[in-house]
């Protein structure tokens, strides 16, 4: 589904619209990325109350080396849980090639771009030594090169490598203009769910999974972007074999809430310009590392109507204490009758909905199981915090500053 537009977006999200479908290894056959007014707290000892040995084990499980000094310096991280629906507007690094097309030239039908070896998923970053940032930057080069019968010197980014090639534009006999036979795009838009805001720094995290281009299925290399408020207009209920989705919209001219600095396997991250309005809870909550997450009851925060964030019951079916970052750390199942009646479970657009257990933020919803929309995957919060630049220890915080 291609739901990227630069103007008002109606359609549901991120999970599939933006994202790559991932294959589930052990729990189900396949999954799709899944793009509060009340929250109950329960008492549980925080990391600050642990013994030194317990802290050492905690840090080891979180991927830190065994170091008593570092263990003693573990931070009491608190975040404001999200759940709000947000509009996402990304600018790509260069111009993305999303397809080839044939030009009706005098010598027959062909695609100059394909002939030059340019592939779908390549990023055009330079032409004739000049930096390319948007589609309009290319047109003047194409027309000039066509009239002068001189090939363009094109630099493309392919995965992590830079590749150079020559591209000769051809004249379209019908339209009497020069073309290169490539479909290109310089931006993408969609919707998702905010996961957390770190109140001290204003850093935020959302989605819990990477944003990939709908056509190329490759992660989008971000060169800036922004998030804005989004309103959920309706829900397409999920059924076995057919994940549902949130239908939401936002306007291109809406006020910017924050920027986008990073698009990683664990979501999008950046800095808020101002607090997100609405009924977002102002109270912050501690976070739980992966080894603290337990099988059993939990809650998710999300929007299924308008802009109202609500709490819904889920069950953590399984969880893996992770020493190293991984995108699938837990399996959850929706048990809340209200949510099941309305959505059928996890739907596209819920990606990034924060998960709360025992009064702590433990992670975010990321994927829905295609054959069972009541269930899906979640990512542990520590990996999202790491990507956002929120350090887990005082030592790292001092080094970062």
UniProtKB/TrEMBL annotation:
The keyword Hydrolase applies. SUPFAM superfamilies: PDZ domain-like, Trypsin-like serine proteases. Residues 1-33 form the signal peptide. The lineage of its organism: Bacteria, Bacillati, Bacillota, Bacilli, Bacillales. This is Stage IV sporulation protein B. It comes from Bacillus badius. Residues 161-400 form the Peptidase S55 domain. Transmembrane segments: none annotated. InterPro entries: PDZ (IPR001478), PDZ_6 (IPR041489), PDZ_sf (IPR036034), Peptidase_S1_PA (IPR009003), Peptidase_S55 (IPR008763), SpoIVB (IPR014219). PROSITE patterns: SPOIVB. Keywords: Hydrolase, Protease, Serine protease, Signal.
């Amino acid at each position: 589904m291609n739901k990227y537009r630069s103007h008002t977006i109606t359609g549901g999200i991120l999970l599939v619209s933006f994202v790559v479908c991932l294959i589930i290894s052990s729990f189900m056959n396949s999954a799709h990325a899944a793009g509060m007014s009340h929250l109950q707290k329960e008492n549980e000892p925080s990391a600050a109350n642990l013994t030194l040995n317990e802290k050492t084990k905690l840090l080891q499980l979180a991927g830190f080396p065994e170091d008593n000094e570092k263990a003693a310096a573990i931070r009491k991280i608190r975040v404001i849980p999200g759940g709000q629906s947000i509009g996402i507007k990304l600018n790509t690094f260069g111009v993305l090639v999303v397809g080839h097309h044939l030009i009706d030239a005098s010598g027959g039908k062909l695609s100059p771009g394909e002939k030059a070896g340019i592939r779908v998923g390549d990023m055009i970053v330079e032409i004739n030594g000049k930096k390319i940032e948007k589609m309009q930057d290319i047109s003047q080069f194409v027309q000039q090169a066509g009239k002068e019968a001189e090939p363009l010197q094109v630099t493309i980014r392919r995965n992590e490598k830079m590749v150079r090639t020559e591209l000769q534009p051809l004249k379209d006999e019908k339209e009497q203009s020069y073309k290169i036979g490539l479909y290109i795009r310089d931006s993408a838009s969609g919707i998702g769910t905010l996961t957390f805001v770190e109140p001290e720094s204003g850093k935020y995290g959302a989605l819990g999974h990477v944003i990939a281009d709908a056509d190329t299925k490759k992660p989008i290399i971000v060169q800036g972007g922004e998030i804005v408020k989004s309103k959920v207009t309706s829900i397409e209920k999920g059924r076995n074999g057919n994940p549902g989705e949130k239908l939401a919209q936002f306007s291109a001219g809406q006020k910017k809430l924050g920027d986008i600095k990073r698009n990683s396997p664990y979501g999008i991250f950046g800095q808020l310009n101002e607090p997100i309005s609405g009924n977002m809870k102002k109270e912050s909550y501690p976070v739980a590392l992966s080894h603290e997450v337990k099988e059993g009851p939990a809650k998710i925060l999300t929007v299924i109507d308008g802009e109202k964030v609500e709490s819904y019951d889920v069950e953590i079916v399984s969880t893996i204490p992770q020493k190293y970052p991984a995108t699938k750390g837990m399996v959850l199942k929706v048990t809340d009758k209200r949510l099941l009646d309305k959505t059928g479970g996890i739907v596209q657009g819920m990606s990034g909905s924060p998960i709360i257990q025992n009064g702590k933020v433990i992670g975010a919803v990321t994927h829905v199981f295609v054959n069972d929309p009541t269930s899906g995957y979640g990512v542990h919060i520590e990996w999202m915090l790491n990507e956002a630049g929120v350090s887990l220890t005082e030592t790292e915080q001092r080094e970062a500053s």
